[in-house]
Specification:
By secondary structure, the chain is mainly α. Helices cover 79% and strands 0% of the residues.
């Protein structure tokens, strides 16, 4: 039972911490008036929302032993909705960072992702209302994997652009570590999900334990993401 509470706490910490990091990045816009901080902060919060259903599910499944559970079509629609919004916002922020020109190309790419993610969400909404069982089908993993790979690939370019600015080398290094840890955490969780049927992510199983380790890694990814924008005080003094 201890591991169950630890998993609840770790996933909850990751979601809350990510929201705090996103809000802190948004606050930087009001200090600098640099528009880039708005989509970057919002995207990180939306991305963390992907884990809200998993955080919530631990309570009715392992603690209360009753109540509503995010599973099947409901969970997939909830997850895909947030990760789709996160992807569109992130792509817009990324294209703003690299200052893609002419502007019509930038907005065409954003529009492409917007239409693509709208279609994906519409498909899952259809499955939700028609109650067609698609839990575990490749569509869910393909759409989620496509979004996460986009985050990773553009994130590495984001790191490279950051390190090109004088005095921002450590910011870039921390962002690189953040994206690296985020990828590793996702892989741990993905293996855990594939090894654990249904929504029963019990840490007492091997799959559940891997999922728990992944959530711990994600916490550190959020911390390093924060340091990518706000260097630790001891580094500022040095």
């Amino acid at each position: 039972m201890l591991l169950v509470y630890l998993q609840l706490i770790s996933t909850f910490i990751f979601v809350v911490l990510s929201y705090l990091v996103g809000i802190r990045i948004l606050s930087k816009y009001y200090q600098t008036k640099i528009n880039l901080y708005v989509p970057i902060g919002i995207a990180w919060m939306l991305l963390a929302s992907f884990w809200i259903s998993d955080t919530y599910n631990i309570i009715p499944i392992h603690i209360l032993k009753e109540g509503f559970v995010f599973e099947g079509n409901t969970k997939q629609l909830f997850d895909i909705f947030f990760i789709s919004m996160a992807l569109v916002v992130w792509v817009y922020g990324f294209l703003s960072l690299i200052d893609l020109k002419p502007l019509w190309i930038k907005y065409s790419i954003v529009l492409f992702y917007l239409i693509l993610e709208f279609v994906i969400v519409a498909i899952f909404t259809f499955y939700f209302y028609t109650d067609i069982i698609i839990n575990g089908t490749p569509l869910y993993f393909l759409s989620a994997s496509f979004s996460l790979l986009t985050f990773l690939s553009t994130g590495l370019i984001f790191v490279k652009k950051t390190m090109e600015y004088k005095g921002k080398e450590w910011n870039g290094r921390f962002l690189f570590i953040a994206f690296l840890l985020f990828t590793i955490g996702i892989l741990f969780e993905l293996v855990g999900v594939l090894m654990t049927p249904g929504s029963d992510m019990n840490p007492n199983t091997v799959g559940g334990l891997l999922y728990f380790i992944g959530s711990l890694i994600l916490i550190f990814s959020s911390i390093f993401y924060y340091w990518g924008f706000f260097l630790p005080k001891f580094m500022k003094k040095s």
